[in-house]
Amino acid sequence: MSAVDPITLSVVRGVLETTQREMTLALEKTARSSVFNLAHDYSNALFNHVPEMIMQGQDIPIHLGSLIPAMKCVAGYFGDDIHPGDVILHNDPAYMGSHMIDTCMYKPVFYKDELVFWTVCKGHLTDIGGPVPAGYNPDATEIYAEGLRIPPVKIYDKGVRRYDVVNLLLTNLRARRDQEGDLNAQLGAVQVGERNLIALLDKYGLDQVRACIDELMNMADRQMRKLIATVPDGTYVGKSMVEDAGHGFGDLEITATVTVTGDSCDVKIDSPPQIPYFINSYEGNSYSGVYLGIMMFAQVPPPYNEGLYRCVTVDMGPKGTLCNAQEPAPHMNCTTTPMETLTDAVRLAFEAAAPDKVSAGWGHANGCNIAGWDTRHDEEYVSMILASIISGAGATPTQDGWHACGPECCFGALTSGDIELLEYSYPIVIHQYSLMTDSGGAGKYRGGSGTCWEVEPLDKPMDFITFGEGRHNPASGAAGAFSRMVEPKVGRIEISRGGKVETIKDNVIEVINPGERAANKNPGGGGYGDPYERSVDAVIWDVRNGLVSIEGAERDYGVIFTDPAKLVVDMAATTALRGAAVAAE
Amino acid sequence: MRTKYRLGVDAGGTFTDFVLADRDGTVRLFKALSTPHDPTEAISNGLKQISEAVGETAEAIISQCDLCINGTTVGLNALIQHKGAKTGLICTKGHEDSIEIRLGHKEDGYRYDADYPPARMLVPRYLRRGVRERVVSDGSVMTPLNEQDVRDACALFLAEGVETVAISFVWSVLHQDHERRAAEIVREMMPDTLLTVGSELYPQIREYTRTSTAITNAYLGPTLKQYVGGIDDYFRDLGAKYPVRYFQSNGGLAIGQAMSDRSVYAINSGPASAPQAGLYVCSPFGHDNVITVDMGGTSFDITLTSGGNTNINKDIDFLRYRIGVPMIQVETLGAGGGSIGWIDDLGLLQVGPQSAGSDPGPACYGNGGDQPTVTDANLVLGYVNPDALLGGRMKLDREKSFTAVKEKIADPLGISVERAAHGMFTIVNNNMVNGIRRVSVERGYDPRDFVLVAAGGAGSAHITALAKEMGIDTVLVPKLASGLCAFGQIISDVKYNYMATCPLRLEGDAAYAQINDTYAEIEETGVRHLLADGFENDRILIRRRIDMRYVGQVHECSVDIENFTIDASTVDRLRDAFHARHEQLYTYSEKQTPIEVVNLESTLYGRVDRPALPRLAAGEDVSGAIKSHRPMIFSPDGSAIDGPVYDGSKLGMGAVVDGPAVIEEITTTIVIEPGWRASLHESGSYILKRND
């Protein structure tokens, strides 16, 4: 520390954060796909020459964990064959990618002929080829049926664009113009990163910048070690269940075993054998789940970089299992399922280790992709709709969960996109985008409300392709929270056609016609503490604002109204009902 | 200046500042305690002082002013304290929750913070009423407006005592009829209620931004209307020849009606003038990299100007509310002279964000406050003279400060009062340093490349400590520091932003004509407003900005353009400007891809003459300005040294004072820490440099 000037350290840290933010802006402001430009489903990171992640930003947790092994894998693949002006593209989970539709661009940054940094931009494209638009194919039994695999490949070689390679890639993707625009946007992002880093080096010199970056990594390391040292040594186990979303293999249990020794910990994952359904997670993606589970426990402030995980060792279990899949396992859904369940298992193990730091679970992803023909411009459209997966956050020991902040795998980093901009981008009408009554998990502190996103296509039929789960088990409560009224708290899909509403809890491909509607109803977050301890005033306020129904107030919170219209509570009956529960215990 | 005087009145949370400029360049500063219950009381108190100083009656002064300008934090305070009016929202059914969903996002920096609360809603869910109506993305009507739904919403609002209403429908920006008809119904059923119509206030695409901006506007409207009404009447009664001008967060002036109709422009009224003033006082030194820090009684405001350009933001989260309209970027913290020191649950000393305000104010004011504030700590530390505040008009009770710091901080922590006071000073400084880092370091600016300009009554006591912490070695403290924002306001122009949405591809004569006509239309409105304000045509300046993007993109890129007729022969100037800006920001352009236009904006300025900078005469030997010595504490252990106290009014051009020392100006006290040297420049600013 003594070698590093504290002001320079702050400046370097600030420039790294700013660089990461400016890469983010460059991507978001120029991209064509709504997944990038509205939904923030991308992540940018900076690596040093090693390559270690020196700046992880505040982007999507599911991307960032997997970037750590992926960057190493990609750099290792090319070895000495890395030159100024190269740009590498990659998406393949067999090379530590997350899921194939998250396509990642890596730019080596050279300074005075020396490889000093990597700027990296990973983003969810709207399509990656294969039989089903937008990549999520619930019928795939092998990875080969899920789209185009891109092992590490150079799209720029010593500054020269490889038009043939780029053409090969784009030829395999739907909505080519958008995909090409998005590749340009990613390229802009990694170039903005390069520009800023070189300016930083010009100003402070490589030695000083490196010393500062080392110190930033040490700070993160010290922070995490200090926290883990407060956890008593021992072995802690967390278990969580992946729901059967229509595949017929039943519920699948994931176990995380955390062993704390001094200021370090080991995380061991056990999961059942992989299945021929798109919820297998390859090793890179599983790192994201483990790291997010740790961060949900640690909740440390920035800086965020690879130093955080120096004290963590991870064993994903044997190859060929759900959380350590291998070819030919299909995997496209893996960033939400089983990733969120894996995260829950790790988080629950840490809860067992440090009960006072417990927070409730967040709603899982239950989303959709859409595709069809846009008659306004006479072209096809295809996209994941992130606005369709916004669930509720878990309650904490101090407050209600945030409404509309999930799903767990994104942890508030997504933005759902302005509905006018979505309707501008696609030929759709969004009839509803709202919070849902009784969806937040009951507790002394209530879980956040999930959302309903209801859509109708204009002019032409629309493919509506669903993914995820969270449609049977509500988000896990904490510290004794539980909901008696479960149904409104879990996710589901509702299709309205011909005056009837059909509820779907599996992953399906539906065709929605103009005049029909499809709604994604997303789970709320888990509650914290005994719901009968929630203040009556808080329950009345929730009822007044339509977040809890009269029935929900009684069933979930034991609050009985004598006059529902005027919201007058029968205090005697309420006290009796709540007291009877205590007496029964 | 057309007449003898110009008056600036900046009403802050604790003090109201008055700046009176003469035609000959003399600028005088006065201060009175703010009176939030009736702001005109403070103005009247201030005018009494001015009248005594210049020897004319308030009526004579006001009637000889070309402009009376008012900056106010009344909107900001209402938003911070959630004391706006009870507001109802009428919106498209199914979209009642967009302001609570907030795009499903949790702010960066709080991702893993379990205790960070959600934003507090300005309109609770039960007062957000959806009505059946729907316009789609091509501007056509899918569902006509259900007028009964609007009436039902009004009936509920009437029953609930709603004072102000916002209307915001999806795609209203392409089809205003539904909002207009709903507005007619609201006016009919609720004739006394203030009304904000989304597509009129912010005629640009983005439903969430528009709704949130409209709600914020509605929420603040009644507060601003009442405020502006009181001030307008007051000055009219004093014989003002011209309407009072109010300072807006866009960095320009506006008349009162504009402030109550578009109160969202008033949010950051006061602090937004700091960059203007900072650049002006730095101009004799040739600096155009300026960070201004304004520390008043309740808040600490930071602005950054790099290369003479101050950042303007639009479509940003301000105090966690999405605001679409353009604003000068100001970072605000709850750290001021009135910020209260307290001990948290973990037994750690904290300062702010709670403030004692002006009533009761710091303990030393003797108005019944018993909480130790930063001002109390500064008094204990010997930085502030108990007898010299406001030129001696306001006495401070050091005993009360001592007692408050002792009882609330020193005794619970088991340390000396002096150490406790220095701890409060250090912690509030640390809070402020973090704020300065957010606008500089975190945005890629090295603070060491900037001059720090102190503003606000309390700022000068902290300025060398802050500079030291930031590694900044040049600090500027104008004698007018404590009224710098008021000064910035009297050198500002009248400024209105006019926006229009104009979605079209930049192809063909019809498109060029439409852009041209739309600019002409909004500018004609603007010119009409300014002519009515009394500006001649040669005093009106128009600046254009156009938002464009490549077809397929959804976010726009703003480009400043000259005023010229847009047609086939000139349109390449737009295209070139866009490609160049895209390349500058994002490293590449796509010259083959068609471009589309989204929004147009014209900023209209009514140019106002600026008063000249003052010129100080050379003074006597500085030792003659020493009026006393007193114990001052600069050490964390609380030990004191005996430092000289200078009377600033006796220092002339070229005076040099080495720290440790205190210079007492009438409205501010400059603390010069050991290792710093202050020199007084003829323009009336102290320039402080590190000499260690």
Entry summary:
By secondary structure, chain A is of the alpha+beta class.
Topology:
The complex is a heterodimer of chains A (585) and B (692).
Chain A: H1 6-30, H2 34-37, E1 42-48, E2 53-55, H3 61-78, E3 87-90, E4 102-111, E5 114-124, E6 153-157, E7 160-161, H4 163-171, H5 176-204, H6 206-229, E8 234-242, E9 252-261, E10 264-270, H7 283-298, E11 312-315, H8 339-353, E12 366-374, E13 379-385, H9 419-425, E14 428-435, E15 451-457, E16 462-468, E17 492-497, E18 500-504, E19 509-512, E20 517-521, H10 536-544, H11 550-557, E21 561-563, E22 568-569, H12 571-584
Chain B: E1 5-11, E2 15-22, E3 27-33, H1 39-54, H2 58-63, E4 65-72, H3 74-80, E5 87-92, H4 98-101, E6 128-131, E7 134-135, E8 141-143, H5 147-160, E9 164-168, H6 177-189, E10 194-197, H7 198-201, H8 207-237, E11 245-247, E12 253-255, H9 256-261, H10 274-282, E13 290-295, E14 300-306, E15 309-310, E16 312-313, E17 316-318, E18 321-323, E19 327-328, E20 331-333, E21 339-343, E22 349-355, H11 374-380, H12 398-413, H13 417-439, E23 451-455, H14 459-470, E24 474-478, H15 484-490, E25 494-505, H16 509-532, E26 540-550, E27 557-561, H17 571-586, E28 595-606, E29 626-633, E30 640-647, E31 656-658, E32 661-664, E33 669-672, E34 676-680, E35 685-690
Parallel strand pairs in B: 1-4, 4-11, 5-6, 5-9, 9-10, 13-23, 23-24, 30-32
Antiparallel strand pairs in B: 1-2, 2-3, 7-8, 11-12, 13-14, 14-15, 14-20, 16-19, 17-18, 21-22, 24-35, 25-28, 26-27, 26-28, 29-30, 31-34, 32-33, 34-35
Helix pairs in contact in B: 3-8, 5-6, 10-15, 11-12, 11-13, 12-13, 13-14
